[in-house]
Structure formats: structure tokens, C-alpha cells
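Late entry, evening session. Most of the bench is empty. Finally got around to the prediction I had been postponing all week. Sequence below, unchanged from the version circulated by S.P.
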Amino acid sequence: MPHVVAEPCVKCRYTECVSVCPVDCFYEGANMLAIKPEECIDCGACVPMCPVNAIYPEDELPPKWAAYQELNAQLSRVWPNITDTKGPLFDAEKYRTVEDKRALLDPRPGPAESLGHQPPPDGEQMA
């Protein structure tokens, strides 16, 4: 049974989970990640890596976030694959504990540096 990225990821998009995925099943949207269910091998390596506890096995997804099961399936088909860790969105800490973020989900594909990745350290230019 695949894992699902749920609402806590919206407006945060931490990517520590991406670096431990053995099958590269994460996809990047403008302000959250999604898991492609056909690619997830249910290893669970990503779950403890998520600092906002947004990743759940499909059968343990809280009912209030049930829509995210289908959203992950749909959005992972159109968003680009992400395989490397990036900094979180610039206002991730502000949204880390916010509830009811579904209306804030941006369905556009990432990467979205212009939409708010943290700036690179020491004034370096982003590629």
C-alpha cells in the first residue's frame, strides 16, 4: 500500500523525505510534494524524515485528509519528479502548524524557486 503526502506539507514543502526514497517516487508542486502511488514501494523510509508529519501509509491517512490520496495520484502525473533535497519554502515555519491549508494548495508544478524557496546562503546565485 503506497504512502500519501497530506495537508501538513502545503506551504512548507520540506524535502528531507526525497533523499531517502529508494525509488524516487516524489513529485514537486509549487508548494507541496506528492507521492506517485504506482511507484511507492511502501518502505516507509520517508515517514520519519518529514518534519511536519505529512506522510502516511494510505490505510492510516486521517479521514480529514482523505482527499489527498487522490490528489497525490493526480498531481504526481503532472508534476516533475524530485530526487534531491532542497530548502523549504521561505515561509515554511509560518505555515508549519497552520490547520486547514487545503485552499492554499497550489496545483502548479514545481520547482518554484520564484514562489519562495529559501534564498541560497551567503548571497550565492541559484541555478
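Two things to note before I forget:
The longest strand covers residues 3-5.
The chain has a mean pLDDT of 90.
Will write this up properly tomorrow.
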